[in-house]
Amino acid sequence: MDLFECLLEDHRALRGAYQEVERRLGAPAGVGWSDQRRLDKPALDEALRAFRAALHAHAEVERVYLERTLRQVRQETRTAEVIDEACRLVESMLELCCSVSSASDGQHLHALRATVRRLGANLELHLGYEEKELFPRMAKELSPEVLAELGRRATLRGGGAARAATSS
């Protein structure tokens, strides 16, 4: 499994973990307390915990393998800016997760759903950038042997989001 396959497996796990957060939050059912009563807060908190664990694990694999490799291969400023922006987006998603955890009444559920949608949009922005722009660029700059070795190391290290999702 090369590095891209490892990261794509992470992407599937992250998308699945996010979908579980959405499922646990559920669709609006009325307003105020009638909506609040339907919310299974412990299940939502557990889904958020699993999503955050998967996101942390994915970010670690990115930091160790993508960031270091890109910084070594490309010394240009643009690459550093792209990596820094990706790190900020991950941090933003983690902060959103924390704010999602604090639902307390029906009025906040509306804001909670909006925050979860924003979290999903940020996740897709991050993963889409990697899949559509970063991976093709790296594939041009790194040999298949290097990508295979990086994938092997990532797998031996314990993987990323996919591993976190199955262990939670």
Fraction of residues in β-strands: under 5%
Counting helices, strands and paired strands, the structural category is mainly alpha
Distance between the termini: 23 Å
**Total number of helical segments?**
7
Helix-strand pattern: HHHHHHH
Strand element count = 0
Give me the Rg, rounded.
18 Å
Q: Classify the helix fraction into a percent range.
A: over 70%
The stretches of 5 or more residues where confidence is low (pLDDT under 50) are none
Task: Assign an overall shape.
Answer: elongated
Q: Which sheet architecture does the biggest sheet show?
A: none
Integer average pLDDT: 78
Report on this structure.
By secondary structure, the protein is mainly α. Helices cover 85% and strands 0% of the residues. The chain contains seven helices and no strands. The protein has helices at residues 3-25, 33-38, 41-73, 77-100, 106-141, 144-157, 161-167. α1 packs antiparallel against α3 and α1 crosses α7. The longest helix is centred in the C-terminal third of the chain and has 36 residues, at 106-141. It starts with a helix and ends with a helix.
Itemize the secondary structure elements and their pairings.
Elements: H1 3-25, H2 33-38, H3 41-73, H4 77-100, H5 106-141, H6 144-157, H7 161-167
Helix pairs in contact: 1-3, 1-5, 1-6, 1-7, 3-4, 3-7, 4-5
